[in-house]
Amino acid sequence: MRYFEDFQVGQVHELGTYEVTREELLAFARQYDPQPFHLDEEAGRRSIYGSIIASGWQTAAICHRLLVRAVLEDSASMGSPGLDELRWLRPVRPGDTLSARIEVLEVTPSRSKPDRGVLRFRVEVDNQDGELAMSMVGASFIGCRPAS
Amino acid sequence: MRYFEDFQVGQVHELGTYEVTREELLAFARQYDPQPFHLDEEAGRRSIYGSIIASGWQTAAICHRLLVRAVLEDSASMGSPGLDELRWLRPVRPGDTLSARIEVLEVTPSRSKPDRGVLRFRVEVDNQDGELAMSMVGASFIGCRPAS
Q: Any idea what DSSP says for residue B146?
């Protein structure tokens, strides 16, 4: 189990990879982002993207899943206050394989709650060609190591 | 159909409401945010939130669905460059009904692509008690009205 004290500025965590199947792309778009260039092949072809593409919110959610599996589920994670500077830099297409990493930017003990701190980290998501598809600055509340 | 020219700074669009069912909350968490306080009733009760809560990414995705239905699907939407200052301010619990609105902050013609502009807008998501659950500054590429 990792606690707040175990995170240090400059640490890099590789988060692994995730294949974005056409089926999952369409299911997410139907539910949360029903725009034609996410759902309809012909509309995708005629769009500025040249094919259907994943909702940017799905790319972000997939990245979060990778973060949970690689880091948060083995940490004293207590949720998140939010994020900054999310950028969707390249389209994600059906069949793309995403890989993600974080670099720890700041570790700040909470002023009001001594049992936790805030971790801020840069997130990068690449496609299978090593091109940056998404970046952001994320944050997590992480519990401090209990006194023993 | 709304084009870039139809958006003006200060416009407010009410986006409607969305009930977050327990079933949908759990389905999203299983797929994209499998942390115990999103999935397990007992872990939720023991967490700082006092119950299971929705993934913040699901709150954002629901807000985006409301934006698509109320504004983007009747506009010349061409995707989004990203967003800033997303804040998860209050937990969203099973059965909560969210409502959302946007206020247009900036309308900026693209310098490099004369066929579109960038809309920037503040987004607010309230729960059924009128408490602010999430806010952010979003952006969309919107196509210009075709010359006739």
A: P
Give the other-Cβ count within 10 Å of A90's Cβ. 17
φ and ψ of B80, to 5 deg: -145, 140
Q: CA–CA separation, B125 vs B102, rounded Å?
A: 9
Measured between alpha carbons, how far is B57 from A61 in angstroms, rounded to an integer? 6
Interface with chain B: mutation pick from A35, A52, A142, highest number of B CBs within 10 Å: A35
Whether residue A100 contacts residue A16, with contact meaning beta carbons closer than 8 Å, is answered with: yes
CA-based nearest residue in chain A for residue B141? A48
Can you name the residues that pair with A77 across neighbouring β-strands?
A: A142
Is ipTM strictly over 0.90? yes
Handedness of CA B60, A124, A91, B106 (dihedral sign): positive
- Which pLDDT tens digit goes with each residue over B92-137? 999 999 999 999 999 999 999 999 999 999 999 999 999 999 999 9
